[in-house]
Design brief:
Elements (H helix, E strand, L loop, with lengths): L2 H7 L2 H34 L2 H36 L8 H7 L2 H47 L7 E2 L5 E2 L5 H6 L1
Helix pairs in contact: 2-3, 2-5, 4-5
Length: 175
């Protein structure tokens, strides 16, 4: 099939639903990303109240994303059927390659926005996990020292020379 033939099968109501759904996907992912940004900031500032609010906002955004996932599957099934594909073969990249005109422009723009937001969210989540892991390690060390169950920690400077252990990044986050 040619791109023209494929585009002619995704027109009218289905093309409008695809475009509308992509807008919903962008807005939903944006709200999840904003919640992750807030979570990240609250961890950096050691702000418990802001952290609790960010977690509630993230939960609400993720619930909206779960609802959207059902709609995504329905649109995917319809579009794949129109293109004569199995639903598991259908993707935004394929749709962008197989269409032209306004639908292709919308798909390409949306795909890029979703990819950019996903990349940022992945980066922030990795940083959040690292901050939490460092905090847990610090707290285990403090509790171990207070209870007398911790082995002395070894710490090395950038040159590989052994130094006295120090508090670490947790203090720097609040600064």
């Amino acid at each position: 099939m040619t791109a023209d033939k494929l585009e002619s099968t995704i027109t009218g109501g289905l093309a409008e639903r695809v475009q509308s759904h992509l807008g919903d996907e962008e807005r939903t992912l944006q709200s999840v990303l904003e919640a992750v940004r807030d979570l990240h900031q609250s961890l950096r500032q050691l702000d418990g109240e802001a952290l609790a609010l960010a977690l509630r906002n993230e939960t609400a955004a993720l619930q909206a994303a779960e609802h959207l996932q059902r709609q995504r599957q329905q649109i995917r099934n319809e579009a794949a059927s129109e293109l004569g594909l199995a639903p598991n073969e259908f993707s935004l990249g394929l749709l962008a390659r197989k269409t032209s005109g306004n639908l292709q422009t919308v798909v390409l723009n949306s795909r890029q926005k979703l990819a950019d937001m996903s990349t940022e969210m992945d980066r922030l989540n990795r940083q959040n996990a690292a901050m939490i892991q460092q905090s847990l390690m610090l707290m285990r060390g403090i509790v171990g020292r207070l209870t007398g169950t911790a082995a002395p920690a070894e710490s090395y400077n950038a040159g590989g020379v052994r130094e006295e252990a120090h508090v670490g990044s947790l203090v720097q986050w609040g600064g």
